[in-house]
């Protein structure tokens, strides 16, 4: 809003080791015969953001005009989209081998897996308050295994896939539950996102969406036809 924008702005991050490259979606304008500027489409424009740390999709979350980058090394960086500068935030307690982060009520929930040797692994679940910039002092236990976690926030709950199950955490009640639907079918890969409490995923030529206990499947080529129409 400080920049005069009335809509959300799309940022795209390309995961290129050892650093990441950032782009934003911009509208291109042309002058017609009446000398009025009209849109001719959209392009991805590269952003000059110096010293960008390495980023992975599972550790990127947006809160307001900030994008948080949570790394497996436990480091946390904040990209201010108004100035395109990075700053540091408090780190995770321990280094994790895998993680997934989502936002619930301006708090970042991070589910991860800590491995110290071939025979010792444990879950990690931490919550970061973006208002106070403080991690909750006590980690939240969970009996389910976060081997390669993927998460999403739906209807105010933090959902994590744990093996063959998806388990939601209700922060208001402070307890885990077991999802009785088939949400796990929509979180196999990283190609999924949540929009207005609906989980969308796309893989193997199929677009799926999940809403509470109902799921829908539509071939991607048919989706393209519908969008063109």
TrEMBL record:
The superkingdom listed in its UniProt entry is Eukaryota
InterPro entries (alphabetical): F-box/kelch-repeat_ARATH, Kelch-typ_b-propeller, Kelch_FKB95
Where the record annotates domain FKB95-like N-terminal Kelch, the positions are 22-214
Pfam families in UniProt: Kelch_FKB95
Q: What PANTHER family is this protein classified in?
A: F-BOX/KELCH-REPEAT PROTEIN SKIP4, GALACTOSE OXIDASE_KELCH REPEAT SUPERFAMILY PROTEIN
Its protein name is FKB95-like N-terminal Kelch domain-containing protein
Which organism is this protein's natural source? Answer: Eutrema salsugineum
